[in-house]
Automatic annotation (TrEMBL), chains A, B, C, D:
One of the protein's GO biological processes: isoprenoid biosynthetic process
Pfam family, one: FMN_dh
UniProt subcellular location: Cytoplasm
Residues where FMN binds: S87, S88, M89, T90, S118, N146, K213, T243
Function of the molecule: Involved in the biosynthesis of isoprenoids. Catalyzes the 1,3-allylic rearrangement of the homoallylic substrate isopentenyl (IPP) to its allylic isomer, dimethylallyl diphosphate (DMAPP).
Matches recorded under NCBIfam families: IPP_isom_2
Keyword ATP-binding: no
Domain named FMN-dependent dehydrogenase: residues: 44-118, 197-357
Reactions that this protein is recorded to catalyse: isopentenyl diphosphate = dimethylallyl diphosphate
Name of the featured protein: Isopentenyl-diphosphate delta-isomerase
Record lineage: Bacteria, Bacillati, Bacillota, Bacilli, Bacillales
Source organism of this protein record: Cohnella lubricantis
Length: 365, 365, 365, 365
């Protein structure tokens, strides 16, 4: 999520603007409800995320002990205390560095997986690499490095990816597919032709696991299938309902064609729950991350019941991430508590039981 | 609905807070409509209770005499002038005592059944037992004692239950299943494992009828079946749409994980009409109470047409219950009048005809 | 719509209150949308009447001449310039007299049928009969006298009906079925048992045509069938969506049980379009009037396309009826123009073509 | 869209009023949502246009190069840089002249097709013809002349049409079918009988291509079929959801029957997407223009995916058209960019792929 020909100040400004806009403006996708009352903060309105259309049927006789509910999981060969992931957000600037370190420390304490923001800056400007190094703060959890898939069409290959994984001491690399975001960036990299073949090649060449993700418009069943066929180890659907990146870029654009056009795409994208369901049925055994618009641990429970192995949170964590490690840590604990409460409410004592529950329904149809 | 290790002042405070919060705050469930305008009083908004989705087809030629409509019923071996129940609410404090006495007196005058709030305080602190004794005010109607089912996992057995029935001179005992409420209480009793077997044992050991109820998240068909198989004499579905107990507890909690998490559960639970329909088809002959979010006698008529034998009202009565016997009595009379008007509107002269009407429809699907 | 034991001043007050309330308060039924924004005037909000759920498919090539559209019809053996009816509203007081005379004069000028309000006052107090005599102002149009069907259970028979028809010089008599309204009137006549048999007897005994109508809760297919079997000559469905009579009575009631209960019935009743469809399929050849909540000539066109022979307007005309003959006349002309415009829009040059159009659809289902 | 017996000042006033009203008042059709919040400007609210009910399923792996997307098309034998059309709007007055010249210049620069407003004034008052001559500003693009089809019933024939095509140097002529608008014009031409036969005759007699369009109520599948059978070369559905011409005329009418009646027709008409779908399936190979309520290039993409060959924009361009060529040009560029972005988002590199995509869905049903 960085464009070519940036100098250091440009990167710094863009990254900080992204964070500021995500905290201050209403950048929530309108893919689910075009007519919802517009908010204006970093908060995700769950009636606009698509998860509200799904409901758990309550179980008045759970027949389990709340204290014994087991939500431990694993990812990329490392154990997790919860099936939860901090989604890729930032890196490359002083403020990003602070955010990443806070997120990493909190994730380590709570046993969540942690994904870094796009590491392109770290590759191209070694002096920025520092801000992506959080391993010392998070020695035991899975860490995922992040890069734009489209860079494979702009000179990147196995070498650059290997370098990024090494300098971040990551357990794997996730490539983001963000076509529409590039289109709305002034000098975006918009040649997405032949990417699948290049991803396939990369998967063969690297010995660390490679994943693919969207950034808020969603990976559907068809593409999840094509990606696993190409050799990825996991797919993060990053569906619509949460952050809309055409909206975020709109707030940064100067007056002109792109800025005027952004609004028309505010409702674009495949809602996250649909992505998860489709992807799971297309790829029965693949490792899936459900993310995009999750606002609570109840949403995480729905994501898992719909077929995700892990559930990811992005913008929902941002307000706390600019504050302190303690704020984030409490936020993560709240999400876990909500997840456990939901599991208790349907009588699921393990993630397997949650994944196989018949108590998730879609009243509308 | 009381937690361990309470001293008298704690109980007093908690009970009073429950009542205050139910009267002042918007604690209505969002299980039916997450986007409804939020109210802020003790009043139940019927567009949020699930009963609005059901409608009676009007009968312009009722062919009956309004004055001859017969709504007399019976419960636990005693006759009722109406198929209606005051749901379990309170007991154990001076103010609770006043409320219970007013409710009992009004119920006796109108011939409703009356359920008491949780009697755990009465068992554990004999000096509080007084506030549960309302039989002198209500000599002819069925009175139901109430206890948390989960206490069977925390040392309670047939003896304690017998003692409670005796000191309340009740005709039966209802056990409440309130897992999610316990989870949101600081020192809640949250081990719900193996409860069904213990309920079964209790039913065998006691010679008074035992029932089971939820507290606002609903008992579905599957659990209604399991409960009757275990030997209960009646089930009160206490479904979602009315009072949300995670919301009530939220207003009492100090800042922290639980308080932050409560909001995410505000929409939890199975709407009351669905519970009744499911339970009736799972248990064709069992005695069912339809409650949770009922706001009028028209809702009561719908509950009965959906399969309930009695209809229960909780928070709808609270505003009047803190006022005077006369207020409650008028409120009960209003509900009866609405029930009769609905029966007249479809031409049902008896509760049997109401139960078998084909004039209840669900326009949406 | 008058209750027993009234003296003249009582009648006068009640009739005037009905009119005032209908003009000033929001008495629109909530049978169609319980959540609509509440208005507070005599105006009917068409999004709350049920007709908005039906739409005409536009015909861009009508292939007819707007000026040649023929909407002439007939009713009770007299010709009409439009298939439209002024619904029963008032009579029996000085102000009612003025309203009836204005309505009759305007109906005569535009060639509409005209129904009078309940004539019970005229029977019981001959001195009030004058206010029901409008024939001199409306020599050519069909005039319909009106009486509560329930009076047949309270001493009325063929004699009283004959007398009413004679003194109003009416072409027929319509009996209103208003059970729920009687229930909400302090001393309402609420014994509706055995009414159908009495209607049957009356139809045999009288040589003028007898019809039946509701007052805003609707006559469904089943009852339309029973009424025609009993010998009525026409049925006016008077369905829900327009004026709610429990609401109207609510505004008149003193504090107490009835007043408190009225609100719970505000959404009662079968929406008018459903009544018409059902009744037409139950009674393929019976003469049907579609009324209840009609707000425009487009609604009238829908009523006819759904199966009505005539379309009736009540409260929609009231604001003009208290003003002047000219106001009503213009209002009637507006409704006719809307009806013609709708017919032009689907290319129907005659009422037969309108009745048989396949261009009325119900997008929602 | 002009009525008989006008003198020059009348025409001038009416045309200017149309433009003013379209810019200032809420004239958006309520055919799609009768309950939407009413706006009050020239802006089209896309949640009211019907296109919001259709969504594109996002393709995270478009596998194409955004820069290589090809949207070139052709119409009436001339090449277009985009499959887009400026819909018929104005002509005949000084201000109209300015608007037409700006639109023509911008359309030429961006390679859009351009339709003129009704040319009746040019035929009947040669001194006004000047304002329809824009060919000098738009030498390469297709220009379409415009006339009311109903004029064929009021003395117009092949000669007048030929004259209009010649003086506008147009590539074809489109006849508008605007029955309901004529009805709401004080001296409108409302005899639409036998028009189809006359259109057929005209198609035979003229050697330039003849098309047919509505003005905002839509041409459905049945009529599209009849029109192609009659020999037209293209049909512009001009469906409901955008400008409502009964609303526009309402704002111009003096108090009286017509003005009062207009509101009842505000929801009339067949929504544009339905028209396109129906028309395409009725006429698999006919040239179709999708217009009526299009607010963005995403809507244009939907129109094409539903079956249109070109997409037309009317009132959406008006605010810019009264400003400057540069404003319109930017507006056209924005629409093109949105169209390309939508194509990129589903991975369609050509208009053929867009037309055949299986990625357009209708979530509601
Ligand atoms: C401030 C911010 C920065 C982001 N940066 C990246 C990034 O560098 N790489 C990436 O793949 N996704 C990035 N994302 C997208 C998120 O990983 C996530 O897919 C998206 O925001 C949707 O999830 P959400 O609704 O939970 O925020 C970013 C999101 C936010 C809010
Ligand atoms: C103030 C208050 C106190 C309550 N206390 C109890 C209780 O002690 N035991 C119990 O089983 N239910 C208790 N309930 C739950 C009610 O019995 C009922 O199931 C629930 O409120 C849903 O019904 P409603 O929507 O009509 O209020 C209480 C409810 C209220 C409003
Ligand atoms: C002021 C007023 C008085 C009415 N009085 C009578 C009446 O005496 N008899 C009767 O059968 N209906 C009466 N009605 C009912 C109307 O005939 C009609 O059925 C009902 O209002 C529904 O139609 P609407 O929605 O067009 O008003 C009255 C209605 C109004 C508004
Ligand atoms: C100001 C204005 C003037 C118009 N004049 C004409 C006209 O002369 N002839 C015609 O066929 N349509 C005319 N139309 C209708 C448009 O061509 C178009 O069919 C209609 O406005 C619906 O499209 P829209 O929703 O994009 O505006 C006019 C529209 C506008 C806004």
């Amino acid at each position: 999520m960085s464009s070519s020909n940036d100098n250091r100040t440009d990167i710094e400004r863009r990254k900080n603007e992204h964070i500021d806009i995500c905290l201050r403006e209403d950048v929530q996708s309108r893919a689910v409800r075009s007519d919802a009352h517009r908010g204006n903060s970093g908060h995700i309105d769950s009636s606009r995320s698509g998860f509200d259309s799904y409901r758990f049927r309550h179980n008045a006789l759970p027949e389990i002990d709340f204290a014994a509910i087991d939500i431990s999981a694993s990812f990329l060969g490392r154990p997790l205390q919860a099936p939860l992931l901090v989604s890729s957000m930032t890196g490359g600037t002083t403020e990003a560095n602070r955010i990443n370190r806070r997120l990493a420390e909190a994730a380590e304490r709570r046993g969540w997986a942690m994904a870094l923001g796009s590491g392109r800056a770290a590759i191209e400007r070694p002096e920025l690499a520092e801000s992506f190094r959080v391993r010392e703060l998070a020695p035991t959890i899975p860490i995922v490095a992040n890069l734009g898939a489209v860079q494979l069409n702009y000179g990147y290959g196995a070498d650059e990816c290997r370098r990024l994984i090494e300098l971040t001491e990551a357990d794997g690399l996730v490539l983001h597919l963000n076509g529409l975001q590039e289109v709305f960036q002034p000098e975006g990299d918009t040649d997405f032709s032949g990417l699948l073949r290049r991803i396939e090649k990369l998967c063969r060449e690297l010995d660390k696991p490679i994943g693919a993700k969207e950034v808020g418009w969603g990976i559907d069943g068809e593409n999840a299938g094509r990606l696993f066929d190409a050799g990825v180890s996991f797919v993060d659907v990053a569906g619509a309902g949460g952050t809309s990146w055409s909206q975020v870029e709109k707030f940064r654009l100067p007056p002109g064609v792109r800025r005027e056009a952004a609004e028309a795409l505010a409702g674009w994208g495949q809602p996250t729950p649909a992505c998860i369901e489709e992807a799971r049925s297309a790829v029965p055994d693949g490792c899936l991350i459900g993310s995009g618009g999750l606002a609570s641990g109840v949403d995480a429970a729905k994501a898992i019941a719909l077929g995700a192995n892990l559930a990811g949170f992005g913008r929902s964590l941002l307000a706390e991430a600019v504050e302190s490690v303690e704020s984030i840590e409490e936020k993560l604990a709240v999400i876990e508590f909500e997840l456990r409460a939901a599991m208790f409410g349907i009588g699921a004592g393990t993630l397997e039981q949650l994944a196989e529950t018949n108590r998730l329904i879609r009243p509308g149809g």
